Amino acid sequence: MKRKACAEVGIKSFDVDLLEQVSEAELISKVHELNANPDVHGILVQLPLPKHVNEEKVLGEISIEKDVDGFHPLNIGKLAMKGREPLFQLCTAKGCLELLTRSGISIKRKKVVVVGRSNMVGLPVSLLLLKADVTVTVVHSRTPDPETLVREADIVIAAAGQAMMIKGSWTKPGPAVIDVGTNAVDDPSKKSGYRLVGDVDFQEACKVAGWITTVPGGVGPMTVAMLLKNTLDIWCKACDRALRPYLQTKYPAPSDLSCMALPQNIVLRVWQCHCPCNPNACILFLLENLKHTDAFHLLSNTAGF
Amino acid sequence: MKRKACAEVGIKSFDVDLLEQVSEAELISKVHELNANPDVHGILVQLPLPKHVNEEKVLGEISIEKDVDGFHPLNIGKLAMKGREPLFQLCTAKGCLELLTRSGISIKRKKVVVVGRSNMVGLPVSLLLLKADVTVTVVHSRTPDPETLVREADIVIAAAGQAMMIKGSWTKPGPAVIDVGTNAVDDPSKKSGYRLVGDVDFQEACKVAGWITTVPGGVGPMTVAMLLKNTLDIWCKACDRALRPYLQTKYPAPSDLSCMALPQNIVLRVWQCHCPCNPNACILFLLENLKHTDAFHLLSNTAGF
Q1: Could you say which of A141, A187, B26, B171 is the most buried, measured as most Cβ atoms within 10 Å of its Cβ?
Q2: What interface predicted TM-score (ipTM) does this complex get?
Q3: Where are the domains of chain A?
Q4: What is the per-residue pLDDT across B130-166, written as a single tens digit (0 to 9) for each?
Q5: What ranges in A45-136 are assigned the alpha helix state H?
Q6: Using a CB-CB distance cutoff of 8 angstroms, which residues of chain B are in contact with residue A136?
Q7: What pTM did the predictor assign?
C-alpha cells in the first residue's frame, strides 16, 4: 500500500531487500549509506527484524532527520514533553487524531481510553492526546477490568493487537471508535484462508458506536497518508535549505518564501457513510491524495536535486 | 536541603552562583565547563531561569551522562518506551514509586490517578507507572470532572501545583495519597508570614486515606534522596570505567567486581506512624542515609580521582 501511495502522489520510493540472514553490521551499513544519500529524504525500516538483529540499535542508526516513522527515543521524548516539538509525529498516532479532526469529532474535554501501550501506537497516541488537553486513560493487558474503563470513554482508540476483543457491550452508546488493530483470523470462505479484522468486534460495535472505523480501511490508509506527509515535510525542509542561498543571491532582501506551506497540498479526504446495522453510526473512510500543484513543481524545478 | 543531604552522605557539592542578568551564552559556557570537568559527576540547573534565557537550550547543553535530573528529551523518550532504559529516572517520579514500594503498597493491578502533567512530575510519573503495569489516568487543568476520576483511584499522585485542591471528599476510603505539591499560603501566625501546604487538603484527606504523605516531608526528602542516588550511580559508572583497566592489569581474568552493586549502600528509611486524626491512616516519613561502607572506600582509594 505504501509503495502504491508513493507512486500515486509522485514520491519516488525504492526497496532495499536484504536476505533474512543479513548481519547486523551489514544492515547498519546500509542504513548509513541511505543516511548519507541526499536524494533520500525518508527511511523506513520494515519491522519486525530477524531475531539475531538488535532492533533498537538499527532504528537508532537512522538519521533522526530522515526517521519518517518517528520512532527515535529523542523524538518520543519531545513528543511527550510540554513545550517541546518532535521532528515527526508517529504516523499511526497522528493518523488517529487526523481522522477525528477531519470527521468533526472534537476531542476537547473528552474522556479517551487508549487500549494498548505499544511504542508504535498506544504510547504515542496517549502522549499526543495528553498534549491536546484530553483526559487519557491507558488500558492494557494487565488492567484488571478493561471493560468498565472502556464503557466510560467518549472516544475509544483500540490498539491492543487482539482480534475482536472489544465487544459492542463494552461501550456506552455513541462514542467514536478508532480501530487500529489488524489481525488475521481463519476464514475458509476466503481464497487466502483468512480475513483481516480489527481489535473491535465491528458487527456488534457499529450498532452502539456513534462513529467507527473499518478494518481494512480507516486507520490503515490514514497511517500511509501520514507517512507521505512526514516525507513531504522533510523534503520541504531540504528544499528550503537548498533554495535559501539561491533566493538570497537573486533577492538579497529576506524572502518570505518558505515551502513549509506545501503540506496544504496534501488532500486527505474522509468519506463518511451510514452503517447498515446502525443508521445513526457513521463509518470513516479515507482517501489520500497529494496534488501536484504549480508551487510543488516550481520548487522541484528550481532546486538542484 | 540538597546541599545538606550531600554533605551528610559525603558527596561534595558546590554552587555556581550567577547574576540574574547573566547572558545565555555565558550560562551555557559554564555548563560546558562543568561537562568537561572529570571531578563533576552530576549537574543540576536550578529552575526557573531568568526570562531572557532559553531554558530548553540550556538544559539541552548538559551532558546527558551528567544530567542527574533526567530532564533530557532523549532520557524522557527512553523512559516512555517499552524495552528502552533511561540513563536516569526523574528524581521526583522515581521517589513517588520508591515511597510506595518501601511502604509495602503494591501497585500491581491498581488504578492510579496522576493529577498534573508537568514535564517534571506528572508526565514522568505516569510513564514510569505505565511501564510498571499500572492502569494510569492523567487528570489535568482541562479535565472536566477531576473529582469523579480521583474518587476511582486506589493510588492518587497529586502534582498539580494547586494548594489543597484535593479535598477529603474527593477520594474513596483507603487509597494511598502521595502529595507532590509544595505551595506557600499566607499564614500570619508564622514568622515568615506563610506556610507550606501540598496539593491535598491534609487535614481532611488523612481522615479518609489509607496512606498519606505530609508536606513538608514525604516526597521532598525522597526526591533529594533520589538525586543523591542518581549522582552515586554516575559516580559508580565512572569508578567502573576507571577501575576496569587497573583490574585487568592486576587480575587478567575477567573480574566480577562492579561498583554497580554500590547503590545498595544507600539506605532509605521510610518511617511509618499513625495519623492522630485517623488511626487507620499511616503517614509516610523518610530519612535518607548513604553508608560509607568498606567497599565504597576501597573504590575511592583505588581509583585515581
Answers
A1: B171
A2: 0.79
A3: 2-76, 89-221+267-290
A4: 999 999 999 999 999 999 999 999 999 999 999 999 9
A5: 55-61, 73-80, 91-102, 122-131
A6: 137-138
A7: 0.81
